[in-house]
UniProtKB/TrEMBL annotation, chain A:
Pfam families tied to this protein: Aminotran_1_2 (PF00155)
The protein's name: alanine transaminase
Family: Belongs to the class-I pyridoxal-phosphate-dependent aminotransferase family. Alanine aminotransferase subfamily.
Source organism: Oryzias melastigma
Assembly with partners or alone: Homodimer.
Cofactor(s) needed: pyridoxal 5'-phosphate
TrEMBL record, chain B:
Catalytic reaction equation(s): L-alanine + 2-oxoglutarate = pyruvate + L-glutamate
Protein name: alanine transaminase
Top-level division of the source organism's lineage: Eukaryota
Gene source species: Oryzias melastigma (Marine medaka)
Ranges for domain Aminotransferase class I/classII large: 60-451
Keywords: Aminotransferase, Pyridoxal phosphate, Transferase
Pfam family, one: Aminotran_1_2
Cofactor(s) recorded in Swiss-Prot or TrEMBL: pyridoxal 5'-phosphate
Family: Belongs to the class-I pyridoxal-phosphate-dependent aminotransferase family. Alanine aminotransferase subfamily.
Subunit structure of this chain's protein: Homodimer.
Amino acid sequence: MNHGTSLLWKQRALSSLSATRRGLPKEKMSENGMSRAKVLTIDTMNPTVKKVEYAVRGPIVQRAVELERELSEGMKKPFAEVIKANIGDAHAMGQQPITFFRQVLALCSYPELLSDSIFPEDAKNRACRILNSCGGNSLGAYSASQGIESVRQDVARYIERRDGGVPCDPDNIYLTTGASDGIVTMLKLLVCGEGAARTGVMISIPQYPLYSAALAELGAVQINYYLNEEKCWSLDISELQRALNEARRYCNPRALCIINPGNPTGQVQSRQCIEDVIRFAAKERLFLMADEVYQDNVYAEGCQFHSFKKVLFEMGPEYSETVELASFHSTSKCYMGECGFRGGYMEIINMDDEVKAQLTKLLSVRLCPPVPGQALMDLVVNPPQPGEPSYERFISERTATLSALAEKAKLTEQVLNTVEGIRCNPVQGAMYSFPRITIPEKAIKEATDVGQQPDMFYCMKMLEETGICLVPGSGFGQKDGTYHFRMTILPPKDKLKILLNKVQEFHQKFTQQYS
Amino acid sequence: MKQLEYSDLARRMTQIKEDLRQGVEKPFKEVIDVSWGDPHRGGMKPLTFVRQVLAACVYPQLMNDNKLPVDVRQRAQKLLDGCAGRSVGSYSATQGIPEIVQRVSEFISRRDGGVPSNPENIFLCCGSQWALSRILNVLVNAEAAFTTGVLAPAPCYRTTTLSIEGLGGVVIPYYLSEEQGWELQVEELQQALESAGGACNPIALYVINPGNPTGHVQSRKSMQEVIRFASEKRLFLLADEVYQGCIYGEKEFVSYKRVLAEMGPPLSDTVELASFHSASKGFMGECGLRGGYVELVNLDPAVKKYIYTLFTADSSAPLLGQIALDLMTNPPLPGDPSYFQFDQETQHIKSTVDKNVKKAFEVVNSLQGFSCPAVEGGAFAFPRIHLPAKAIQKAKEVGMQPDTFYCLKLLEEAGVLVSPGSDFGQKEGTFHFRFCILILHDVLEELLRRLTLFHTQFMKDFS
């Protein structure tokens, strides 16, 4: 065996204590071998796995799926269809893929099509270029663990263009299986220590529950910093400081996660705010994790996406040479909406070389990210250029998608704010509204009596009565005593209007019912 | 986590490739890399039917194209019907697209002579290794007073052992019997458990059949012994069966699930098992699509709930990988328009690999100091080299494992990259290397030619 591990377990061979004294599970086989306890039970399983929750696909979604089944079996319901407004899945809600991307991917999948005249020349060229960088010229070969080299180079160039020339080293680019893979891997790297030295990770409240799930699974300490709902979910440095100071008493804070544009809140951080966060991370020696998957989804006037990397470098070498940063992007959101391809990348700045070596090993365990996702990421960072045959169509599709989202963001804010008891901050970016709802005392009591969070109780009722599936705010975290839900802005405009009206009706009815 | 010997070799290969690109003179024009179990990289072609369906799913306008066979178009329609928004760009349900999960379960049942398979116990994942690491995550308790131990074979595919260690578990190696063609002998399992003594809490037993790197296909009798052992010693059985589509020679593949079911109660109702399969190997060879699945047998329902929740945080397996699984488990049937070509292509792959297996066996065993059992299944040959004392000495002097030393020289002087046995674990004082046999026959012949020349010289130099 590997010398290291064989030594390790030999060294641990202590005494020959009996199983019971060691506290290990006793043999529970009865005489005839029947009714024996399982090997893997809720007592013997990894306890951290039990703490994992992921509200986006949680119990309310399971109920939604059941209802769909009942509907399809002909059961009568107060609604004709279940609307899954819980998940940021654009295509599921009817958004169309970008033609150019799908053409190139089809050509890559079945290169015989290169002789087919229905495909434009630029799509064919692009497909050839991608296939040449794949083992055996096939999407079916493994790529290097870090991702196809030419794709990483293209990603680096994209980042340089996006960031006004700030240099990007392709060696710092890691292609990942969606952004989630990169985020979880980085957290794995960062989490260590025992007891009061256990790694603490700062995460915004409300947050995207992948973070809390990963932290629970890793047994890390989750350090909550609250976004300011009254100020459009802005981030106050004083709140970061408060959270950090308190956390230092019982853990070792090492990382600060920020989602910009925000999920579920949609806020787009100002440049000043980003600078302040960087200064804070530098001062407090925190590893910065910048989740920027919604970077093209910016709608509100006066709002602009500023990448953490760009701001970091513009703050000069005192910061750019010291602050450790990982930024994440994905093919799942923005105008592409290609969740099913599981394409993503992360850029890592100022990471210690030895840690990088560990990172490489960690990534190698899952072999490589899906190659079609890598190919798609290559197209996203390298879209058609002016003058190329596919350019016009690409630009018009992209613009149509993004402007539709912007319209729907505005519409959502407007309609929800007409409802008494619902207060919706402007949806500045991303794909969701996260309105605050007032839940009557009577309803809160009933919820508590059945052991449910009040907003889960509310959302479940909404699901049963309208077929609309949302995610309760408790799944994302919120200030005590406040309640929210997260609803996507993804359904087509007409459908969204109907949905919003139904939400309005339900809320009024619910408030009435529990007054 | 210890650095793999292979990584140094891989780095050296990159340098050599760059040298070649720059026009540096070498005794070879290109590097033959057979260190990966990657058929497409080895020159094997993807199956036409598979790629046509994938293309039509990715760009549905192709379905208006009469150039695509009718069954391709029908299959693509059916698959898209199961996708939210009729797009392969949407997420799927956590366990996978329900229609595909259903069809995978039917495949399993057919394969196992009718043993029932419940779709609720199946999770489609981003490759079988991902699925394995999720299940290991549930088994390995990093917070317990005693480290969780997982029995794994020696030699073993390094990704699995890395996975166990990365989760805070410890690998308990059980040695496969090289003299008996890499058979798994239950006495070795016993021996391994005893050596582990009180050092850890053994909770699982990992087997890979057909074997990687060994190429051994387990007999039914051996599998029964393993199952009995797992039951007796209260071990969760992890059965990695990704090479089930790669069988040569006379032995047949039978799944652990089937053997377990046929052993009847109480074993069939109690032994907890997770079996893994993937679209990466076999005729499909679609490693890059990341299509794998795990089937859970006899698990505690309460634990299954937690496993389900764990998988929800992964979102879903890539849609193209899921589609690849559907195509693998439901290929064209006789009478279908695509059947003829599909059959031709798979037969061609089969005859190529059969030839490779035979040729590799002949040539490798003809070389002085080499011994290699016939490859019964899987993607690799794993010959043993009896290195001369002088070579072992030289290796020690330069601070290398003897087989790594051999592999490095093979790379430098013959342009062939293989994986050194020390990365897989082997009995002290024995040396091996692993190379992929799912490659074009010409490439294999060239590889063997270079190996023969190199080895003859090597033995002269170090005698």
